[in-house]
UniProtKB/TrEMBL annotation:
It holds the Pfam family SecD_SecF_C. Gene3D superfamilies: Multidrug efflux transporter AcrB transmembrane domain (1.20.1640.10). Forms a complex with SecD. Part of the essential Sec protein translocation apparatus which comprises SecA, SecYEG and auxiliary proteins SecDF. Other proteins may also be involved. The chain crosses the membrane at residues 10-28, 158-179, 185-206, 237-254, 260-286. InterPro entries: SecD/SecF_arch_bac, SecD/SecF_bac, SecD/SecF_CS, SecD_SecF_C, SecD_SecF_C_bact, SecF_bac. This is Protein-export membrane protein SecF. Keywords: Cell membrane, Membrane, Protein transport, Translocation, Transmembrane, Transmembrane helix, Transport. It is a multi-pass membrane protein. Belongs to the SecD/SecF family. SecF subfamily. Residues 114-288 form the Protein export membrane protein SecD/SecF C-terminal domain. It is found in: Cell membrane. GO terms for cellular component: plasma membrane. It comes from Clostridium paridis.
Length: 292
């Protein structure tokens, strides 16, 4: 039988270290790296030859905007096999700089005038409104899940599940802070998706704990939790690996949805970890405190 609950301090310490490192980077950098959706800026889409050198393009782009991020989005919309479309995002590009940058790229790669697919000035379209809506959605989801779990199981299970959810969110935010990854609107959608995925895995484990409480009444909460985790560990691991492999493949091979897929990869891994190593130990702590 796995001895997971006995090593609770190790699991909590690992998560706390990541959160503290993330908090340190946030303080050092003055917060998260908010993308164009939150702060506004410029987005330019350009058709490039399929054999272009991304390093050379980055060098040219950085001359006009040091904060620019260049991504290869996909093959062109018209399906041309010899062209790909790149996306350039920056908070400091203006029309003059875009014109000069496109001219230099055109001279280097012999681009046609219609290679400049789009040039959009993006205002802070999301800003406070989307942030407020996301927080409200998160609050409603948390309250609804707490009520459901409290009715279906018991209130201690609900508290443990909510703590695990906040753990997943904080770890994901910490990863973004550590690696200075831009936070855009797909990130908000990914966070809400992660919550649903994580709570599903947690409920499966809690359901087994509830069943074992009836047949193991003479055992301690630690023994019940360890036995339940041993029974569900393989199932949780296989489910997580299957989902992670699929999402990771999407993140690697479909660049156009990478801003949504990457936080999913991080969040799903955190969700599987928290369901086993955070939610269950928290339930044991609450159970022991009630007994005392």
């Amino acid at each position: 039988m796995l001895k997971i609950i006995e090593k609770t301090k190790i699991w909590f310490t690992m998560s706390l270290i990541i959160m503290l490192i993330g908090a340190g980077f946030m303080i050092y950098r003055g917060g998260l790296n908010l993308g164009l959706d939150f702060k506004g800026g410029t987005q330019v889409d350009i058709k490039m030859p399929k054999d272009f050198n991304k390093g050379d393009v980055d060098t040219i782009v950085k001359k006009y905007a040091e904060d620019a991020v260049t991504n290869t989005v996909s093959e062109t919309v018209d399906g041309s096999a010899n062209e790909v479309q790149i996306e350039i995002k920056s908070k400091s590009l203006d029309s003059t700089k875009v014109s000069d940058m496109f001219k230099e790229l055109s001279e280097k790669y012999s681009l046609k005038q219609d290679a400049l697919v789009s040039h959009d000035e993006i205002g802070p379209s999301i800003g406070n409104e989307l942030t407020s809506s996301a927080i409200k959605a998160l609050a409603v989801a948390v309250v609804a899940m707490l009520i459901y779990i409290a009715i279906r199981f018991e209130f201690k299970f609900g508290i443990a599940a909510i703590i695990a959810l906040f753990h997943d969110i904080l770890i994901t935010l910490s990863i973004y802070a550590i690696f200075n990854i831009p936070v855009n609107s797909p990130f908000i959608a990914a966070i809400l998706t992660i919550i649903g995925y994580s709570i599903n895995d947690t409920i499966v484990i809690f359901d087994r704990i509830r069943e074992n409480q009836r047949s193991m009444r003479r055992n301690t909460p630690i023994e019940i939790a360890d036995h339940s985790l041993t029974q569900t560990f393989t199932r949780s691991l296989n489910t997580t690996l299957t989902t992670l492999l699929t999402t990771t493949a999407v993140n690697i091979f479909v660049p156009s949805v990478r801003e949504f897929a990457f936080p999913l990869v991080v969040g799903m891994a955190c969700g599987a970890y928290s369901s086993i190593f955070i939610a269950s130990p928290v339930w044991v702590m609450l159970k022991n405190r009630t007994s005392k």
